[in-house]
Design a protein that fits this description.
Helices cover 30% and strands 20% of the residues. The protein has helices at 3-6, 8-18, 23-31, 51-60, 87-90, 132-139, and strands at residues 36-39, 45-50, 69-72, 77-82, 97-99, 104-107, 118-121. It is globular.
Amino acid sequence: MPTRARNPVSAGARWLARCSQSESTVRAAWMSGDFAIIPSGIAWLVAEVPLPPSVDAMQRIRSEELGPVLAHPLRNVAWWLVPLDGAELLHHVRQLTLYPAGWPLCCPPVQRPAAGRVWLEKPDGSGRLTDPTALGLALDPGGSLKLPAEAFC
């Protein structure tokens, strides 16, 4: 059986470290019990959403459309990892702040919380990110989200 199937948490940690500018720096931070700063824009962008709507949205998004979601419960916020090309679909969503490439995301280890942060949906190593159309619709089910016609095909 491949390692990925036996231990998806380790695969997720490897993937997340590869999304950084320095895998060794990320691993060293995690081994010391701290979070690692991984800038957006290498493999994904970060969408920040208040925690309660994020938890609700996670229930509305199909599992195959749901990517990693990081939360800081004391700050009442969640950060969603979305594709680099997802900005156009998400910029109309009022509850969401989309950060540009280079924005530093403080990532705890995949297996445990650090500095008040915890993965609500852990990276699984596949590279799957949250589908921006699904996220936009889950956060704005009433419909101010303007989607291109191809989103409904």
